[in-house]
Amino acid sequence: MASEDTEAVQPLVPYLKTDASGPYLAGSKCQACGHLFVGERRVCAKCSARDQMSPVRLAERGRLYDFTVVHRSFPGVDTPFVDAIVDLEDGAHLKGTLLEVEPDPEKIAFDMPVKIVYREAVPVGGGGKPYLTYFFVPA
Amino acid sequence: MSDVYIVGIDMIRFGRFPERTVPGLAAEAALMALDDAGLGIRDVQALYCGNLGQASGMVGQRMLAEIGQTGIPVTNVANACATGATAFRDAWMSIKAGVYDIVLAVGVEQMGKGLLGGSGGVSTEGLIGSGTMPAMFSHIGMEHTRKYGTTFEQFAKVSVKNHFHSTLNPKSMYRRETPLPEVMNAEMIAYPNTKLMCSVNVDGSAAAVLVSERKMKQLGLSARAIRVRASEMSSSPFEERQLAMPDFSAVTRVAAKNAYERAGLGADAIDLVELHDCFATAEIVHYENLGLCADGEAGRLIDSGATQLGGRIPVNVSGGLLSKGHPLGATGIANIYEVSTHLRGEAGQRQVEGARIGLTHVVGGGPGMGAACAIHVLEKA
Question: What is the pTM of this model?
Answer without folding.
Answer: 0.96
